[in-house]
C-alpha cells in the first residue's frame, strides 16, 4: 500500500517518513511541501540520505488522492482543517490521519475558543475518531479520518485512564508536564532559540495551554463526569521527550501494588504501554525514539493521593508513531508493524 504525507518537512512529517521506512506493508508515495517543493528529501531530513531518493512536491489534491491508500496530514492547526475538508469533498473514502488539533474536539465551540480558529467543516468533524489506540481501538479500525492526539494529552490520558475509568479517584486532577524543545516544531521562536532554551527550565501556557481542553475532554469521557483539571506544561532543554506527573486523590486508599495491578490489567492488550515495577519510575531517555509510553505509580498514604508518572517521546508516541499505530489499525495491519523500534539509551 502507498502512504503519502502532506507537510513532510516538519519534525512530525519527518518522523512519519522515518518510521514508515521500517514498515513491511507500505511504500512511500507523495511527499508535499509548499516551501521546499523541488528540493530533495535529504536536504531537509539529512538522516534519510540514501534512504529516500525523491523530491518534495507541491500539493495536488486529485493526484495525492488517486495515488495514495492512506494520507498523513502533518500541517499546522487551521491549515489542516481547510485542506482535509477539500480532500473529503473530492473523495469521501480517503483514509486520512490528521496530526493537527483540528478534528480532536467533540464540541467545536471549545476548539474555536482555545485555538482562536473558526472550524469550517462541522459535519466532517463528527466523523473523526480520536486516535488514542489504547482507548478507541475498535472505533479506529472502522474510521476514515483519525484525529491524532496531542503529545501532552497522550501522556496525561494514558497516565490517568485506569483510575478515572474505574472511578477510584476524586474529580480534582493536577497534571504537571515537561517537554523537550522539538514539541514546539521547527519554526524558530524567541523561547525555543538555543540561547533562550539551553540551561533553562520554564513553565508556559499556565491555565491557558490549548491541550488543556483536549485532556479534560478525554478524562471526562473516562470518568463519566466533570473533571476539575489543572494542567501546567514546562519547557526543558532536551531535544525530545515528555515526562508527565499526575496527582489524583483516592476515594479510598489503595496500595501501590494494587494500583499497578489495575494498570497492568487495563493495558494488557496495549503493546506500547509499559507499566513499571513498584519503586521504578519513567524517564524520557528510556523511551527516546520509540512508540512506548512508560508509566510508574506511587500511592501516598500520608496525603491520600496517587501519583502517576508517564514518559513518551513527544515526536513518536506523542505524534508520528501514534499516527502509524492508528494507520495499522485502520488498514488491518499488525498494530506494531513499523514501530518495533528499541528506545535509544543513553
From TrEMBL:
It holds the Pfam family Semialdhyde_dh. Its main location: cytoplasm. It catalyses: N-acetyl-L-glutamate 5-semialdehyde + phosphate + NADP(+) = N-acetyl-L-glutamyl 5-phosphate + NADPH + H(+). It comes from the Archaea. Gene3D superfamilies: Dihydrodipicolinate Reductase, domain 2, NAD(P)-binding Rossmann-like Domain. One of its GO terms (cellular component) is cytoplasm. Transmembrane segments: none annotated. GO terms for biological process: L-arginine biosynthetic process. SMART domains: Semialdhyde_dh. It is found in: Cytoplasm. The keyword NADP applies. Pathway: Amino-acid biosynthesis; L-arginine biosynthesis; N(2)-acetyl-L-ornithine from L-glutamate: step 3/4. One of its GO terms (molecular function) is N-acetyl-gamma-glutamyl-phosphate reductase activity. Keywords: Amino-acid biosynthesis, Arginine biosynthesis, Cytoplasm, NADP, Oxidoreductase. Residues 2-143 form the Semialdehyde dehydrogenase NAD-binding domain. The active site is at 151. Its EC number is 1.2.1.38. NCBIfam families: argC. Belongs to the NAGSA dehydrogenase family. Type 1 subfamily. Catalyzes the NADPH-dependent reduction of N-acetyl-5-glutamyl phosphate to yield N-acetyl-L-glutamate 5-semialdehyde. This is N-acetyl-gamma-glutamyl-phosphate reductase. It comes from Candidatus Methanofastidiosum methylothiophilum.
Amino acid at each position: 500500500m502507498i502512504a503519502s504525507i502532506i507537510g513532510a518537512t516538519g519534525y512530525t512529517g519527518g518522523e512519519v517518513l522515518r518510521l514508515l521506512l521500517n514498515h513491511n506493508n507500505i511504500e512511500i508515495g507523495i511527499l508535499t511541501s509548499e516551501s521546499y517543493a523541488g528540493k530533495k528529501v535529504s536536504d531537509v531530513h539529512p538522516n534519510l540520505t540514501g534512504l529516500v531518493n525523491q523530491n518534495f512536491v507541491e500539493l495536488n489534491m486529485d493526484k495525492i488522492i488517486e495515488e495514495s491508500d492512506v494520507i498523513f496530514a502533518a500541517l499546522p492547526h487551521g491549515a489542516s482543517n481547510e485542506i482535509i475538508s477539500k480532500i473529503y469533498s473530492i473523495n469521501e473514502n480517503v483514509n486520512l490521519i490528521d496530526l493537527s488539533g483540528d478534528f480532536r474536539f467533540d464540541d467545536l465551540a471549545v476548539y474555536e475558543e482555545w485555538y482562536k480558529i473558526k472550524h469550517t467543516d462541522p459535519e466532517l468533524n463528527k466523523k473523526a475518531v480520536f486516535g488514542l489506540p489504547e482507548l478507541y481501538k475498535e472505533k479506529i479500525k472502522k474510521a476514515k479520518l483519525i484525529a491524532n492526539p496531542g503529545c501532552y494529552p497522550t501522556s496525561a490520558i494514558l497516565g490517568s485512564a485506569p483510575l478515572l475509568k474505574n472511578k477510584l479517584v476524586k474529580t480534582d486532577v493536577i497534571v504537571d508536564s515537561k517537554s523537550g524543545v522539538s514539541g514546539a516544531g521547527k519554526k524558530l521562536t524567541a523561547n525555543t532559540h538555543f540561547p533562550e532554551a539551553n540551561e533553562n527550565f520554564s513553565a508556559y501556557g499556565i491555565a491557558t495551554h490549548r491541550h488543556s481542553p483536549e485532556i479534560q475532554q478525554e478524562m471526562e469521557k473516562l470518568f463519566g463526569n466533570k473533571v476539575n483539571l489543572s494542567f501546567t506544561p514546562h519547557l526543558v532543554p532536551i531535544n525530545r521527550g515528555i515526562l508527565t506527573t499526575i496527582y489524583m486523590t483516592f476515594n479510598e486508599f489503595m496500595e501501590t501494588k494494587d494500583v499497578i495491578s489495575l494498570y497492568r490489567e487495563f493495558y494488557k492488550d496495549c503493546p506500547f504501554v509499559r507499566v513499571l515495577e513498584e519503586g521504578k519510575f519513567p524517564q524520557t531517555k528510556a523511551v527516546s525514539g520509540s512508540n512506548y509510553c512508560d508509566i510508574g505509580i506511587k500511592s501516598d498514604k500520608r496525603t491520600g493521593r496517587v501519583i502517576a508518572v508517564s514518559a513518551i517521546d513527544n515526536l513518536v508516541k506523542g505524534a508520528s508513531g501514534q499516527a502509524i499505530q492508528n494507520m495499522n489499525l485502520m488498514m488491518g495491519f499488525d498494530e506494531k508493524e513499523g514501530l518495533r523500534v528499541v528506545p535509544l539509551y543513553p
